[in-house]
Amino acid sequence: MRQAKNKKKAPTLWSSIDWFTIFIYIVLLALGWMSVCGACYNFDQTDGILSFSTRSGMQIVWIGTSLLLAFLILMTDDRLIESLSYIIYIGFLGLLFITPLLAHDIKGSMSWIKLGSFSVQPAEFAKFGVSLCLAKVMSTYGFDVRNWKDLAICFVLIVVPMALIILQKETGSALVYSALFLMLYREGMPGSLLFTAISAVVYFVVGVRFADAPLLGVEQMSLGHGLVMLLIQMFTAGLLWVYKPEARGLARRIVSYSLAIDAAAVLFARYIYPCNAVWLAVAACAVMTLYLLYLSLRDRSLPYLLMGLFALGSMTFHYSADFMLSKMQSHQQKRIRVLLGLEDDPRGAGYNVIQAKIAIGSGGLEGKGFLNGTQTKLKYVPEQDTDFIFCTVGEEEGFIGCAVVLTLFLALILRLIHLAERQPFTFGRVYGYCVLSIFLFHVFINVGMVLGLTPVIGIPLPFFSYGGSSLWGFTILLFIFLRIDAGRGRLQR
Which pTM was predicted? Predict the structure, then answer.
C-alpha cells in the first residue's frame, strides 16, 4: 500500500503539452487575421469582415480548420508519426513530381493543384515530410552527420524535393528547404561547410554588384573581380589558420603576399601602364591553390587538400556567377539587380518594395489604426494579403505593432530552441531544429524582402499570410513537434 501511494503518477497528455507555445500560436493567429482584414478591407465594402464572401471571412475558415488539425495531431500517438516518416516523405516526393502535370499556371507558377473551388500547394506541406524523414534517418543507430556518407544522405533528402519544387517554377519555396542545413550544423556538420555556403553568397553579391565598377578609375580593372580574388585569399588563409594550427605561418604569408601583390598590381595599372592587372591577382590566387594542392600530396594532409579545393571551387564559382544569373528567370534577375542597386526600376521589379516601404513608413510610431490603412486599402501594395502582409502591420499598427509581432516570433523561435534541446531522443531534437529553422527562414526572408533587405522571392509570413495551404502547413509542422515533445517523458519508445 505504501509503495502504491509513493508511486509517481504518469503525466497525462494535456499536462505534458507546452501550452506557452500554443498561446504564442493563438496570439499570432489572431494578429494574422486582423492583418488579413486590414489588407483586404475596402472603404466602400458592403459585406462585413466576417462574411465568407471576403478573404477575411475565409481566413476564419482556415484558422478553424487549422485548430482542428492541431487537435487531431495532438490526439495522434507520436510513435505512429515517427513510424510513418519514410512513407510520408516518399508520398510527398510523388506528389511534388506530379504537381506540374496537374497544376494550373498561376502567375507563372505551376505549384497549385485545384481541388474543387480550392487550391492547395503541396510544397507547403512537404516541409514537415522532409523534416520527419531527416529526423528518422538521423536517429538511426550509428548515424553520424560528421561522416561524409551520412552527411551525403541528408543532402540528397533535402536537395531532391528542392529540385522538384524548382521544376514547378517556385524558387522561393525551394529555397526554404536550404534552412534545414542549419539543423545539420547543430547536429555536427562541419562549420567549414556552412562557411563555404556563406562565402558563396558573399562572392556572388560582391562579384555581381561591382562587376562593372572600375578599380581606382582604371576602366580595364573590375572592382568586383579584384575584391573577390582578395576575399578568396583571405578566406582560405582564415580556414588554414583555424583547421591547420601548425600552418599558421603559411596563413600569415598568404595574407601578406596577397596584399602586397594586389597592391603592386593596382599601383602598376594606375600609375605606370593602364591594363587589367586583376589577372595578376587571379594568377596569385591560382598559385596559392596549386601550392596548397602540392602540400596535400607532399605531406598527405587532408586539410591542405580541402583548403586547395575551397580556393579552386571559389574561383570557379565566382567566374560562373554571371552564367548562373543569366539562367535565372528574367523577373528574378531584375529583382536581384534592383536589390543590389544595379538598376532603378520603380515601376517594375522595384515597385513592390518601394510601395511596401511607403506603407510601413506611413504608419509611424502607433499606426493609423485597425482598417484605416490607406496604402493597403487603395491597393498600392501588390500581394498585400499574402507575401507583403507585413506592410499592413506596419501601416495600421505602426512601429509598436511591428515590434510586438517580431517579439512574438522571437519568443516562438527561442521557445522552439528550448523544446528541441530538452528532447531525450535524437528524433525529437532533429525534428525540432528543422521546425525552428524553417520558421526562422520564413520570418527573416519575408520581413527582409518587405523592408528591401533581401530579394523578393515570394514566401509567406507564418500565421499571417492569407491562405489555407501555408496556414495548414505551418500548423502541422509545429504541432507534430508539440506532440513529440508531449511524449518525451515516456520511458519506452
Answer: 0.86
